[in-house]
Structures are given as structure tokens and as C-alpha cells.
Specification:
It contains 14 helices and 13 strands. By secondary structure, the protein is an alpha/beta fold. The chain has 2 domains: 128 residues, Aspartate Aminotransferase, domain 1 (Alpha-Beta Complex); 238 residues, Aspartate Aminotransferase, domain 2, CATH 3.40.640.10. A 7-stranded mixed beta sheet has the order 2-8-7-6-5-3-4, sandwiched between helices. The structure holds 4'-deoxy-4'-aminopyridoxal-5'-phosphate and glutamine. One of its GO terms (molecular function) is kynurenine-oxoglutarate transaminase activity. Keywords: Aminotransferase, Pyridoxal phosphate, Transferase.
Length: 382
């Protein structure tokens, strides 16, 4: 057995979803909407299914989707990308992250990661034989610790991988923070792998800025998007990478060895989605903002310390004010078993010792009735 994999536990999202099912709990743990994505996107995929679009598509993605990814990049960010040479479609952002890491890391290279971090990052960096350099953001404001970040870069640094808007913190990196990262990446002549799956899920006027749009960064960034998040279709697993033409061939080779291609019918649906009018994208964030507000207000009324969320599907809460005697894992277990509501312990997003253990993450990408029902179950328990 591979020792790195046998040392990796089952993902917390699967563990908590199974526990939710076992106890009949309302699942505000794993981040998936309980509503469907846009009908025209689903129709387009269904039409492609019935239209015989069911054999291997081109390795880097169907032309319609690559063109739509390029058009989306131009419309929202002014990024010019050649759909034939600078876009690679993958089976979800999860594969995209692995493909980008594979494309640039050699054994012994260092890769800077920011904690709290999404759970696939670290195992993949290690499997590639690269050395993770972890830099920790601290609650409640999750500001970038600049001196520590600068110290994590060195002569062996090959890449930084980070996520904005950020799961689980709800943080949107500021222009100043991104400029600081850009400067380090250029000074150390390395790459940035940018997990931007929540790019359209920002609130209160916060705008997502791709690192790729900063001066000097166009050639150094691999920018990752996900149809799962942008179209509320998390089971589809269609991701897309935009990167310079010098990087794309290696990214494509990684994809070739991981999955080779991604279902062509789903790709055609996503192509329709990325070409939807601006109103769709504005509506997506407005609807989610209302859900965030509903859950945040309810949790605050129950006595949780609710941290601000600028983007993503998630609210991070401090449960110390409730007087619970135990850590976040015990809290989320008790919440599921006793209150019948499931959340995710935030320590699952930390790999190094000494992580804060009094935070629970709640997903708000749910119908209003479900959010209200969860709050009603929590009321007598807290
Ligand atoms: N990155 C982050 C930060 C995520 O939260 C997720 C959630 N699923 C992913 C990547 C994976 O996206 P996908 O489902 O497209 O693989
Ligand atoms: N990204 C989702 C979350 O953070 C879950 C994805 C998964 O289950 N692997 O909740």
C-alpha cells in the first residue's frame, strides 16, 4: 500500500455526511446546494446526451467549452486566453488542482500552501514528492501574515497554491494581499495555482480578483474554475484551467494521465452556462447572500460567534460562547447526534499542530425552509 494514502483519512465531508444520514440530521456540513442548477444548462447537457455526444471528446475539452471559458475570462476579468492553447477542461476542480501541481512540481520542490486549506491539497503535494510549506491565517480576520508568507518562499519554491474566495473562512483576498503574493511569486521566479472555484460567490460588493490579472502574473498563474460552484451542479465535476501556452501542454499531459477526458455532454451544458448573461451571475451571488444573512442572523441569535463571510458557501462560527465543553470534532458530533444538525469541524482544514479547535463551519447553500428548520432544531439544544 502507498504509505501516504494509507495515512490519509476518509475526507471529513464524507464522514460528516454519513453521520448526518445515520442520525437523520439536516446536513449543513458538506458544501452542496439542495436546489438544482439553471434549466438551460441542464437542458443543453441532456440534449447533448441524446444527440450522440457520448464518445471521448478532445483531450483538452470540447471546443465549445474552451471557447466559453475564454469568453468568460475576457468578460469578467479582461483576461485574454487562446481557447486552443491556454484552456484545459478537467473532471472537476479537484482534478484541475492535481493536474496543475503535477505540471510544475518535481520531487524535492517546495510548494507554499495557506492554512486553513482544502483537504486535497496536502496529500497531492506530498504524493508528488514535493515539500509543503504551510503558512497559517488566523481567525477572526484571517489576514495574510506577510512576514511569514515571505519567509515560506525560498530558492526551492516552485509554486504557491491557494484559494480565494476561501473555503472554509469565507475570506476574499484583497488587492493588496494579492499584490504581495504576486511580488513574491515573481521574486522567486515560480508559479501560482489559483483555486478560484467560488469566483462568482461573493457578497456585500466584494469582488473576486484573479491573481492572473496582476502585472507580471499572466504567465505565472494557473487559474481554476468549477461548474459545480458556478452553476450549483456539484455532482457534475467539470472544472477548467486557464494558463499560459507554455504551461498548458504539461497540464494537459497530467490530465491525460489522470482521467484523459471529461464527459462531453456535461461540457456542452457548462459551455451554455458560461455564456449566460451577467444577470445570472449577479443573481447567483444575490440569492446566496440572502441565505448567508438568514443563517448568520439565526446562528448569532442562538449565541454563536459568527465570523464574517465575504464569499463561498460557508459561515465559520466560534462556539465558545455556547459554553460547550469539548473541541470542534466533539462539538460537530454532538450537534449531529443530539441537535440533528451537521456542521464541519474547522480543524479538518489544518495540517500542522496547534490549530484553533473552537470553530464549526456551516454551509448556507440550502433552501430557506431548510435553513429555518436547522435553526429551529438548534434552538432547544444550545
Ligand atoms: N476547491 C475548493 C476550495 C472547494 O471547496 C472545492 C469543493 N468541492 C473544490 C476545490 C472541488 O471542486 P470540484 O467539485 O469542481 O472538484
Ligand atoms: N467542497 C465541498 C466542501 O467543502 C465538499 C467537496 C467534497 O465533499 N469533497 O464542503
Amino acid at each position: 500500500q502507498n504509505s501516504l494514502l494509507s495515512a490519509t483519512g476518509t475526507t471529513i465531508f464524507t464522514v460528516m455526511s454519513a453521520l448526518a444520514l445515520e442520525h437523520g440530521a439536516i446536513n449543513l456540513g458538506q458544501g452542496f446546494p439542495d436546489y438544482d442548477g439553471p434549466e438551460d444548462v441542464i437542458e443543453a447537457a441532456a440534449a447533448a446526451l441524446k444527440d450522440g455526444r457520448n464518445q471521448y471528446p478532445p483531450l483538452t475539452g470540447v471546443p465549445e467549452l474552451r471557447q466559453a471559458v475564454a469568453a468568460h475570462n475576457r468578460r469578467f476579468y479582461g483576461i485574454e486566453a487562446d481557447p486552443n492553447a491556454e484552456v484545459v477542461v478537467t473532471s472537476g476542480a479537484t482534478e484541475a488542482i492535481t493536474a496543475c501541481l503535477m505540471a510544475v512540481l518535481n520531487p524535492g520542490d517546495e510548494c507554499v500552501l495557506i492554512e486553513p486549506l482544502y483537504d486535497t491539497y496536502l496529500p497531492v503535494v506530498k504524493l508528488l514528492g514535493a515539500i509543503p510549506k504551510l503558512v497559517r491565517l488566523n481567525p477572526p480576520d484571517w489576514a495574510l501574515p506577510r512576514a511569514e508568507l515571505a519567509a515560506a518562499f525560498g530558492p526551492k519554491t516552485k509554486a504557491i497554491l491557494f484559494n480565494t474566495p476561501m473555503n472554509p473562512t469565507g475570506k476574499v483576498f484583497t488587492a493588496a494581499e494579492l499584490a504581495f503574493i504576486a511580488e513574491l511569486v515573481q521574486r522567486h521566479d515560480c508559479y501560482a495555482i489559483c483555486d478560484e472555484v467560488y469566483e462568482h460567490l461573493t457578497f456585500d460588493g466584494w469582488k473576486h480578483i484573479p491573481l492572473m490579472t496582476l502585472p507580471g502574473m499572466r504567465e505565472r498563474c494557473m487559474r481554476i474554475g468549477s461548474a459545480g460552484k458556478t452553476f450549483s451542479l456539484t455532482g457534475w465535476k467539470v472544472g477548467y484551467i486557464t494558463c499560459d501556452r507554455s504551461l498548458a501542454p504539461n497540464v494537459a499531459k497530467a490530465h491525460q494521465n489522470l482521467t484523459f477526458t471529461t464527459p462531453p455532454n456535461l461540457q456542452r451544458g457548462v459551455a451554455v452556462g458560461l455564456l449566460k448573461d451577467d444577470g445570472y451571475f449577479a443573481g447567483l451571488s444575490a440569492h446566496l447572500q440572502a441565505k448567508r444573512d438568514r443563517l448568520a442572523k439565526g446562528l448569532a441569535e442562538l449565541g454563536f460567534g459568527v465570523l464574517p463571510t465575504q464569499g463561498s458557501y460557508f459561515i465559520t462560527t466560534d462556539f465558545r460562547p455556547l459554553g460547550f465543553n469539548g473541541d470542534d470534532v466533539a462539538f460537530c458530533r454532538a450537534l449531529t447526534e443530539e441537535a440533528k444538525v451537521t456542521a464541519i469541524p474547522v480543524t479538518a482544514f489544518y495540517a500542522s499542530a496547534g490549530a484553533p479547535s473552537h470553530y464549526a463551519r456551516f454551509a448556507f447553500c440550502k433552501g430557506e425552509a431548510v435553513i429555518d428548520a436547522a435553526l429551529a432544531r438548534l434552538r432547544p439544544w444550545v
